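Q: Predict the assembly, please.
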Amino acid sequence: MLNTVFPRINVDSSALGFGCMRLPTTPDGAIDEAEAIRMIRNGIDRGVRYIDTAYSYHGGESERVVGKALKGGYREKVVLATKLPCWLVKTHEDMMRLLDEQLEKLQTDHIDFYLLHALGAERYKNMKELDYMSFMDEALRQGKIRYPSFSFHDEHEVFMEILHDYDWKMCQVQMNILDDENQAGLEGIREAGRLGVGVVIMEPLRGGLLAQPPEDVRNAYAAYPEKRSPVEWAFRYLYTMPEVITILSGMSDMAQVEDNLAIFDRATREPISEEEKQLYRDIKATYLSRMKTKCTGCAYCQPCPKGITIPDIFRGYDQTLLREGGSFKDRYAKIVAEGKDASRCIACRKCERSCPQHLPIVRYLQEIRAVSEA
Ligand code: SF4
Ligand code: SF4
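A: Predicted assembly structure:
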């Protein structure tokens, strides 16, 4: 396992972090607890030092299962990160109440990295008005948390503002081969590194898009002298960045755990070559040329007042375009059956005002609807 250390606070971690947002489930949708615990413990036994969960994952059940997995001495072997669901915080007192609930579910007396979850401009303003800073100070004083942190989905300028506004110890951002100029972007990551704020990466595979590339991308990888799987190429892009401390992988079965462990056992911090940089640029260009919406899946446009699942529709559509000869009709029909489709849109444009990519969401929805219902 490639071991890493958070700057300034000197906390040991691993380049691979276990993301507990997509744990294995049973047919009724509940977490398959026995298998999830086996996977998490196998990861820790093999060198994973960073466990990531959140209040909201698996409808609130992820924290409870992680708490069970970390019993029997496993808690002491890892740094534990969880996130305050900012959207549920209506008063200052709500923050400590939610933290106490999380500590109980996780069966621990402290959280190492405690994040304000999914900050953007509006949410940050609200949290500031509710005085999150004095809450963090008090939680630190009581020993309930160790390192105030945040996760982020918005534009670069907003990231810079939040990054400089408090003594953060870690930031969790979306980054992958396709997103170097989106959200915090590479510039944001470099600035965090300059400030000594450790960077944790989410969405390294862009919701799975980078794990199953189209044929022309597969051919480009195959033509490169060094052979790596698409997943390894995607992780390599990130673990070679000096500012990146941990990369979260939301592992759903043991095979993924094993594959990820093998990749991070081989990994080194040695910088990527100019040839590799060119390969990544070519791969990104190929992907983007074949995608229509280029939605990053950040879900910042949610919730839509009409219940339209915009990220599902956009990502599903783009994924279909990337697959040779695929059709989005079946998947769209399911979204229609669930009552979450584009026909409900009233063009209020609430979503467009929130979209960090400034996507013409209403127009795209109508175009996708036209081809999917034809
Ligand atoms: S414009 Fe349509 S999709 Fe966007 S928030 Fe309004 S109803 Fe929802
Ligand atoms: S449409 Fe925009 S806000 Fe919504 S998920 Fe995609 S990129 Fe994010």
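DSSP finds 15 helices and ten strands in the chain. The longest strand covers residues 111-119.
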